[in-house]
Amino acid sequence: MSGTPVQVPRSGRPLHGEPILERAFRVLGAFTEAGVGLALHTIAARAGLPKSTTSRIASQLTDVGALERLDNGDFVVGLHLLEIASLAPRGHGLRAAALPFMQELHRVTGQHILLAVRDGDEAVLVERLSARDAAAVKYRVGGRLPLTGTGIGIALLAHAPERIRKEALAGANDAACVRRLLATVRSDGVCAVTMPNPLRSGPTTMSTVAAPILSRRGDALGALSLVAPDEGGPRTAAVTALRRASLAISRAASP
Fold first, then answer.
1. Any bridge partners for residue 146, and if so which?
2. Residue 191 contacts by C-beta under 8 Å, 6 or more apart in sequence?
3. Which residues contact 181 (CB under 8 A, 6 or more apart)?
4. Cβ(225)–Cβ(151) below 8 Å
5. CB of 39 within 8 A of CB of 78?
């Protein structure tokens, strides 16, 4: 879930005639961190719904296993959602093809290996392998990432429809830099990016090497990236390894 604030009418009531399914997804969208329980009033505020409506919907979602209620009354995401989400073909099928190559990269580098797919104007992380002693990062499976603010997002954006690229570039902080990276991805099949670490602990900057995973027609099935502390040295080995892995996954996912 992206955690994007919901536009709420001034009355504080849901939009007139809004389908119950949309309100249910607004309740589910209130959960933005894995394993964190939320009180009913917090869910209502984030979803932009009256507390009574939120209570009724949360109870119904609990009955079907989409939410679970803790002993203290807070709600957490239920296991039934995980069961359903695991069946998503774009995530699960690609993950199955990519996992052996991700595991080898993880074994060799001891760093974070990420796999993502594009969903509209965002990247969705479908797998992450991390060593115990790797630098802490905020990325989580199921989390959403901006297409212009991460290496893996740029790898996806390079092969996104033109409309998506134009909209993303219009909102980019440094559109010229993003354009250069997109050109590098399209010409070399990989890009290397150094960005500030959003976490207060650990290294101040992180290095990302990312590559798209393409179908035989050239469409982006997903993207692969390696995230590690920036050591300021050459990244030739990482670039070569990521490029080889992405090509191998492309062949495995598009036989």
1. 122
2. 151, 154, 155, 158, 181, 184, 185, 209, 210, 211
3. 154, 158, 191, 193
4. yes
5. no
Amino acid at 41: H
Task: Calculate the average pLDDT of the chain.
Answer: 84
If you ran DSSP here, which 8-state letter would residue 212 be given?
E
C-alpha to C-alpha distances, 171 to 64, 121, 184, nearest whole angstrom: 39, 11, 20
Would you say the pTM of this structure is higher than 0.85? Answer: no
Q: Is the C-alpha dihedral spanning 89, 240, 143, 10 positive or negative?
A: negative
CA distance 228 to 215: 27
- The stretch 217-228 carries a mean pLDDT of 91
Q: Locate tokens 């007139």: which residue?
A: 16
**pLDDT score at 2:** 41
Adjacent-strand bridge partners of 107: none
Q: What's at 190, amino acid-wise?
A: V
**Quick one: how far is CA 87 from the chain centroid?**
17
Sign of CA dihedral 234, 236, 239, 242: negative
The predicted-structure confidence for 162-187, as pLDDT tens digits, reads as follows 999 999 999 888 999 999 999 999 99
Query: Is the confidence at residue 226, as pLDDT, over 90?
Result: yes
Mean pLDDT computed over 211-218: 92
The whole-angstrom separation of Cα 77 and Cα 221 is 28
Residues 121-137: pLDDT tens digits?
999 888 999 877 666 67
Cβ count near 155 (within 10 Å): 34
